């Protein structure tokens, strides 16, 4: 009769609990004495890495942006409010700055309250 975690004729062989593949979703299993530990892939949690993490629970979207949980584990999307951009809506955005200005032919760019731009043509054109 062997102590827990051991097997063999003389109880000389430590049981590899990872052989039963207890870790789910491409997690890495580490064998311990009479136990195992799973290192979960991004987007997964729990003892066996079987629970999908809701990335929106951590509040990753900034400046009042709405977080949308992706169907792909480990991913989320932010819907940015006007005047913000970036993956987490952390970057200021001006639709009329020199990088984004859509207005041509000497027209004037006007930033709208909803974060979009409109163009005012020069008089007579």
Automatic annotation (TrEMBL):
Domain EGF-like: 1-12, 14-50, 52-90, 92-125
Entries under PROSITE patterns matching the protein: ASX_HYDROXYL, EGF_1, EGF_2, EGF_3, EGF_CA
TM ranges: none
Bridged cysteine pairs (disulfide): 2-11, 40-49, 61-78, 80-89
Keywords: Disulfide bond, EGF-like domain, Repeat
InterPro entries membership: EGF, EGF-like_Ca-bd_dom, EGF-type_Asp/Asn_hydroxyl_site, EGF_Ca-bd_CS, Notch_Cell-Fate_Det
Organism superkingdom: Eukaryota
SUPFAM superfamilies per record: EGF/Laminin (SSF57196)
Pfam families with a match to the protein in the record: EGF
PANTHER family: CRUMBS FAMILY MEMBER
Name of protein: EGF-like domain-containing protein
Highest classification ranks of the organism: Eukaryota, Metazoa, Chordata, Craniata, Vertebrata
């Amino acid at each position: 009769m062997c102590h827990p975690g051991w097997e063999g004729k003389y109880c000389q062989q430590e049981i590899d609990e990872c052989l039963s593949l207890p870790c789910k979703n491409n997690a890495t299993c580490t064998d311990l004495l009479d136990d195992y530990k799973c290192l979960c892939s991004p987007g997964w949690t729990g003892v066996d890495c079987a629970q999908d993490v809701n990335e929106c629970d951590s509040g990753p979207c900034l400046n009042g942006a709405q977080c949308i949980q992706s169907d792909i584990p480990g991913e989320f999307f932010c819907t940015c409010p006007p005047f913000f951009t970036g993956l987490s809506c952390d970057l200021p955005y001006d639709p009329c700055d020199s990088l984004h200005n859509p207005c041509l032919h000497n027209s004037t760019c006007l930033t709208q309250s909803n974060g979009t731009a409109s163009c005012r043509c020069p008089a007579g054109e």
